[in-house]
Write a structure and sequence with these properties.
It is a single chain. The chain is of the alpha/beta class and 222 residues long. It has one domain: Rossmann fold. 42% of the residues lie in helices and 15% in strands. It is built from nine helices and eight strands. The strands form two sheets. The chain has a six-stranded parallel β-sheet with strand order 2-5-1-6-7-8, with helices on both faces. Bound molecules: adenosine-5'-triphosphate and magnesium ion. Adenosine-5'-triphosphate (ATP) binds next to helix 1.
Length: 222
């Protein structure tokens, strides 16, 4: 209990924002959470604090030093591309078995609550044959699925859920992170999803949510 991947229906959906909000919430509550971002593309070595790993480290009260980055984000690539493409640009490959072993080891050795931010959406390719959902399933941890409230998100969210369940990945909760300027209301998105998703908790996060709003979600994870 208390260990989750954080994945999403796609890139830029709010995985890091939500992870940092949860980490801050837990630390304010006196807990000592752990966080990892094992695979990172678009990494700028001159501004490591701006990367996802840098943001997670900041939320944990740690520095964006090379040692800290190596500890939580060992697969770092410069190109802002899907992980397989970003790795190929550097003549590298992500070894799927090593990635799974790293995640299992991180989960075994870390305090709770623990978050492991995945990369891109659930079907983002990691190598020639594996996508993010395979990584989550093989690591043996459930995930939080972050979705938006934009028009079209219902289909993306239900498709992502099917994809995760197809490979046996557990879904702890679906979090609808409000899309700014959407024609679809956050509540309407939640209500519609609730009709199609049975047995999986749904949580709504309004844009710039106060810490109190994150507390409800945190309660689902610990
Ligand atoms: N609830 C929110 N309130 C305010 N800003 C948010 C919220 N959710 C996301 N954002 C902002 O939206 C942008 C994208 O979010 P974020 O970086 O967390 O997405 P991501 O899913 O982690 O993306 P990536 O696929 O690159 O890892 C960021 O600038 C983030 O600060
Ligand atoms: Mg991110």
């Amino acid at each position: 209990m208390g260990a989750n991947f954080i994945t999403g229906t796609g890139t830029d959906i709010g995985k890091t924002w939500l992870a940092c909000a949860l980490l801050r919430h837990w630390r304010a509550a006196g807990l000592a959470p752990a966080a990892f971002k094992p695979v990172l593309s678009g990494f700028d070595a001159l501004r490591p604090e701006l990367s996802d790993a840098g943001q997670l480290l900041f939320a944990l009260g740690r520095e964006s030093s090379t040692a800290e980055l190596d500890a939580i984000a060992p697969w770092r690539f410069a190109a802002p591309l899907s992980p397989d493409m970003a790795a190929a640009r550097e003549g590298r490959r992500i070894n799927f078995d090593e990635l799974v072993a790293f995640s299992r080891q991180a989960a075994a050795a870390s305090p709770r609550p623990l978050l492991i931010e995945a990369v891109g959406g659930v079907m983002a390719p990691l190598d020639q044959t594996h996508t993010v959902r395979d990584w989550i399933a093989a690591s043996g941890l459930p995930c939080l699925l972050v979705a938006g409230s934009y028009l079209g998100s219902l289909s993306h969210t239900l498709t992502a859920l099917e994809a995760l369940q197809r490979v046996g990945a557990g879904v702890t909760a679906i979090v609808v992170n409000e899309t700014p300027g959407s024609t679809v209301a956050l509540d309407a998105t939640l209500e519609a999803l609730s009709r199609f998703v049975a047995g999986i908790p749904l949580a709504a996060i309004a844009r710039d949510s106060a810490r109190a709003d994150v507390a409800g979600l945190a309660g689902l994870l610990c």
